[in-house]
C-alpha cells in the first residue's frame, strides 16, 4: 500500500503533468470503486486541473471550472488501498472502457478508472487482487469523504509536535504499532513505515503507549525520540521518492526499507551500522510486521502469532 512518501511523490508527479490541463474524459472501469453519485463523474469533464494535493494517503485532483465559467471546484479524491496503483500514459488509450461490477482475480491489475487530458496524456487507476478496496469520490469539499474528515495530524506539518504526540500516546493504552497506523491519530503512516520508524526509535512494536509518560508535563525523552524517528524516516523517504516517475515508486520504496519486508536478512541497524542480528517477523491474518530483536526488544523474540506478547 502506498503511504505518505509515495502518495506525496504521486501528488508532485501528477501536479507537474496535469496542472492547467483540461479533463476531456473520465471513464469508470470498476463500479464498486466509485463511492459517490452526485456530482457524477462526467461533471469533471471540461474542467481544468487547478492543483493536486494530499490528505494522508488520499490523493485529491482539484478540478476548477473553465476560465470565465461559474461554479466552485470539484475534487476527484481517491485512495489506492493495498492493491491499487496509478499508471500514467503520455498517450492515454482512447478505447471505450466497459464498467464491470467485479474485478479480476490474482495479481493481474484491473482497470478501476481512466482520466484523460487535453494533451492526450492521462492516468489509469488499477487494482490487483480479489479484495477490491480502491475508493474514488467526486465531491465539492474533501471533508465530504468520511475518511478524510476524520484524519489525524499530518506528521510532517508544524502542528505535529512532541507535545501533540505525547497527548496521542496518553489517549488510550494500546500497542505503539497500532497508534502509528491509526489514520485518525496520525495521517499517512501504514504498516511499512511504522516498522521503519520503530526500528529507528529502537522500540518494540508491542510497547504500550501509556508507558511513554509525559502527558501531564513536558514530553519524555522516549516521546521526543519517537517524534524524531517519525520525522526523520518520513523526511528521508519523501526525499528518496520525490521526482520519481509513478512507475518507479514501488521499487524505490522496497529498496529503501531497513527491516520491513526483509525477514531473515541481516539487520542494517538503525544508524547504518549493522547490529549483527537477523530481521524477525510476526505474522497476522492479513499482514505481518518486521523488527530486529537486538535493536528493539532487548534481544527477546516476539511470538509469531496473533495477539503476540514478548516471550518469557
TrEMBL record:
Biological process per Gene Ontology, one example term: base-excision repair
InterPro entries reported for this sequence: FPG_cat, FPG_N, H2TH_FPG, Ribosomal_uS13-like_H2TH, Znf_DNA_glyclase/AP_lyase, Znf_FPG/IleRS
Domain FPG-type residues, every copy: 258-297
Composition bias, Basic residues: 252-261
Swiss-Prot/TrEMBL cofactor(s): Zn(2+)
GO molecular function, one term: class I DNA-(apurinic or apyrimidinic site) endonuclease activity
Family: Belongs to the FPG family.
UniProt cross-references to PANTHER family, sorted A to Z: FORMAMIDOPYRIMIDINE-DNA GLYCOSYLASE
Protein name, entry field: DNA-formamidopyrimidine glycosylase
Recorded name of the encoding gene: mutM
Amino acid at each position: 500500500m502506498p503511504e505518505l512518501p509515495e502518495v506525496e511523490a504521486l501528488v508532485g508527479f501528477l501536479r507537474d503533468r496535469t496542472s492547467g490541463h483540461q479533463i476531456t474524459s473520465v471513464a469508470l472501469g470498476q463500479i464498486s470503486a466509485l463511492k459517490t453519485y452526485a456530482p457524477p463523474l462526467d461533471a469533471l469533464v471540461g474542467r481544468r486541473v487547478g492543483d493536486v494535493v494530499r490528505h494522508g494517503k488520499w490523493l485529491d485532483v482539484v478540478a476548477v471550472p473553465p476560465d470565465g465559467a461559474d461554479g466552485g471546484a470539484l475534487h476527484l479524491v481517491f485512495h489506492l488501498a493495498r492493491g491499487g496503483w496509478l499508471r500514467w500514459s503520455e498517450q492515454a488509450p482512447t478505447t471505450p472502457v466497459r464498467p464491470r461490477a467485479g474485478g479480476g482475480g490474482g495479481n493481474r491489475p484491473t482497470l478501476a478508472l481512466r482520466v484523460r487530458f487535453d494533451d492526450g496524456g492521462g492516468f489509469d487507476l488499477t487494482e490487483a487482487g480479489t479484495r477490491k478496496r480502491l475508493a474514488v469520490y467526486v465531491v465539492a469539499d474533501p471533508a465530504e469523504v468520511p475518511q478524510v474528515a476524520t484524519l489525524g495530524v499530518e506528521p510532517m506539518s508544524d502542528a505535529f509536535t512532541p507535545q501533540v504526540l505525547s497527548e496521542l500516546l496518553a489517549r488510550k493504552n494500546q500497542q505503539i504499532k497500532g497508534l502509528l497506523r491509526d489514520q485518525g491519530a496520525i495521517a499517512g503512516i501504514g504498516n511499512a513505515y511504522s516498522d521503519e520508524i520503530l526500528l529507528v526509535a529502537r522500540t518494540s512494536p508491542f510497547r504500550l503507549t501509556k508507558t511513554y509518560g509525559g502527558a501531564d508535563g513536558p514530553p519524555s525523552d522516549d516521546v521526543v525520540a519517537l517524534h524524531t524517528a517519525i520525522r526523520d524516516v518520513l523526511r528521508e523517504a519523501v526525499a528518496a521518492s520525490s521526482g520519481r516517475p509513478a512507475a518507479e515508486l514501488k521499487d524505490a520504496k522496497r529498496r529503501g526499507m531497513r527491516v520491513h519486508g526483509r525477514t531473515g536478512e541481516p539487520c542494517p541497524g538503525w544508524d547504518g551500522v549493522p547490529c549483527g542480528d537477523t530481521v524477525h517477523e510476526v505474522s497476522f491474518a492479513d499482514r505481518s510486521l518486521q523488527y530486529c530483536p537486538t535493536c528493539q526488544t532487548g534481544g527477546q523474540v516476539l511470538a509469531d502469532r496473533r495477539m503476540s506478547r514478548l516471550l518469557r
